[in-house]
Amino acid sequence: MRKTGLPRTKILGRFRGVLAVSVLTATSGLIPSLHAAKACTDHDFTGVFGFYGTGYVVKSPVTILTGPFARLGRFESDGNGHLTFSSTASFNGHLIPQDFTGTYTTNPDCTLTTTVYLPDPINLPVNFISIISDDGNENRDLFVNPPGVVVTGAARKQHMGQCSKQDLSGAYALEMSGAILQEGSAGRIPFSALARIDADGTGNIVGKLGSNYGGLPVPQEDISGTYTVDPNCIFHLTYYTAGEGHGPNDGVTLKGVFIDAGTGAFLMVLQPSTATVLGSLKLQTTLRSNPGRLVRPTR
Amino acid sequence: MTRRKRARWLAKVRSLCAAQTRRLHLSRTTPGILKGVLFLLVASACFSQTLTQRGFLETGLLVYPQTAVGDSGRAIAGAILSYEASYKLSPSLIFSGEIEARTDTHNEVERDFGLSWWDRERARPALAIRTLNVTYTKRLVTLELGKQFIRWGKADILNPTDRFAPRDYVDVVSNDFLAITAGRLTVGDQSNTIELVWVPRFTPSRIPLIGQRWVVLPPLPLNAHLPVLDAKAQFPGGPQFGARWNHIGRSAEFSFSFYQGYNHLPLVDPQLVSRHLQLYLQLRRLYPDMRMAGTDAAIPFRWFTVKTEAAYFTSSNKQADDYLIYVTQLERQKGEWLFVGGYAGQYVTEKRSVFDFAPDRGLTRAFLGRAGYTIDAGRSVALETAVRQNGKGVWAKLEYTQSFREHWRVTTGFTWIRGEPEDFLGQYHRNSFASLAIRYSF
Hints:
The complex is a heterodimer.
Chain A: H1 8-28, E1 46-57, E2 67-78, E3 82-91, E4 94-106, E5 111-118, E6 124-133, E7 138-145, E8 149-157, E9 169-181, E10 188-200, E11 204-213, E12 216-229, E13 234-241, E14 252-259, E15 264-271, E16 276-283, H2 286-289
Antiparallel strand pairs in A: 1-2, 1-8, 2-3, 3-4, 4-5, 5-6, 6-7, 7-8, 9-10, 9-16, 10-11, 11-12, 12-13, 13-14, 14-15, 15-16
Chain B: H1 3-16, H2 32-46, E1 51-63, E2 75-90, E3 93-104, E4 115-116, E5 127-138, E6 141-148, E7 167-168, E8 176-177, E9 180-188, E10 192-199, E11 228-230, E12 240-248, E13 253-262, E14 267-275, E15 278-286, E16 289-300, E17 305-314, E18 322-334, E19 337-350, H3 359-362, E20 366-376, E21 379-388, E22 393-404, E23 408-419, E24 433-441
Parallel strand pairs in B: 4-5, 11-15
Antiparallel strand pairs in B: 1-2, 1-24, 2-3, 3-5, 5-6, 6-9, 7-8, 9-10, 10-12, 12-13, 13-16, 14-15, 16-17, 17-18, 18-19, 19-20, 20-21, 21-22, 22-23, 23-24
């Protein structure tokens, strides 16, 4: 079930903090320094997040992994400096599921330094710097060590408990971009797509997809497909364009992770595996398609 | 067919074939068409005193000196086995048919051995009923029903009024006619003939195969090269109809013809489609409706014969052109020599098409010629050519034929094609080829 907001005690605590700052600034005339009034702690980076990373591995201990990179998954921060990740990475078209742990340190200016220990086949500790934003609901990341990797990423809080197919229902905007291997072309070509899909909450989707392959636009095509949702709020969605077969090599399979109380999701293409494509899903109008549903998560 | 009926039918056939010991086995799943063919063949064999039959086995080889885009094959071998029989049941009633089996090394022939009747397969069928018809003649009336060849027009090389004659254009310049399933009623004497044709189901021309050297793809933006998907063709429903009046006078022979139906040559609708994050060029064949009014004439003079033919085509389809095609040629027979030379023109009154496959129109705005020489009873040589008036496309074919003994015939030749890529003939400039065919007739 989806949580509908932050705990009452936390809201009251924030209110008290704002009130105290207001009183202090009103009495001492320190308005210009208001924006720096709150100092972050590890506790400000707490919860379950959906995340993605994208970029390019210029140099890797494993040569075949050099090339376009993407990663998608979820992680949990315990608020005490410990992180637990579950993800799928695409290294140069090689899909590798990777679960790992890490640590973080929060600076008073709400930036983080993070160290995670990447498992096989990388087997290296790597470092990020991150910035907490949106009241702790989002952080933006930059890979900083070791050299040879150009990767950025983002994470957004899920605000969800256990998930089911009903958490993917309504009309969504689906956006994808990245690079694909196209038959007849030398090397990868840029790819982007935009679709409007309707999910019925029971595992089926229909929609219209427009896409662009290396500068050649494809007008809107009808798509249809199915999806499954895991209790940990990871879902898999497969769609087929009209006229396409439904064999094992047909269709496009996306892995998604819910964010923002289910009003959005980060996406990554799993099939065809040679694609390095990330995307997002955004609910169009929650109230119209699901009257009893939350529009935005409570901050 | 029930078991009882089948047993009765077989008994009848077997009684007719008492002299023959071969047994005929037909299962319940044997297609009706095949039963008809077998009946015709068996019945024909049983009444050999009124049967004419013939056939041939031909093996051929095409050698292309150059590779082409998307097709690196340079040699194609093939074989055709054909059997043709005609049975005269009475002076006014004749059954005839031809069955053909073929194979090749380049997938121009289907690998599935299903029996083809309608010739709608993308590739050439491995086993096909080429013709199967019955002809009834009574005084001035001839009625022909079934799968048959119908040819209109008087010119050589290009016949714009020949609307009931789809062709196999898999190799474009080495094309062969396809029979259509039709009813044809001919009424007339030696000087005036009226011909009415009704075709219940459309037979398309067979066009070059995707992935092979004779196919030409529409140009794509950014000079992209994409894998091609062959979408199912949209075959038109509904019948086709044609009428022709032919007059043979003292000084000339001429005819007027009308056709209402569909173009057996397709418009091609190219679309970019995506499949599993791959971009494809999808080609869909459309066969637009067509109305034709045509005329042809042959006027003999002392030194030569003038043959001319013209047809005007219109269509209600928004992608099909309205146009006029005309051919004028001079023909002269001198001893063992035959010379034909002329010009084919085209005038487009309404340009609407974007991309099509139209070898008939591709041979217009061109000078056409043919020269043949019969060396002796067993040997001949022929040269055919088409040269576009703008010089951007040339096609020439030189062929030599020699017969050996009673049954053998060898044909060898060379087809030479040159020109610019934007020209219909010129676009095949890498497809010049040498050919060799050995035929055993029986």
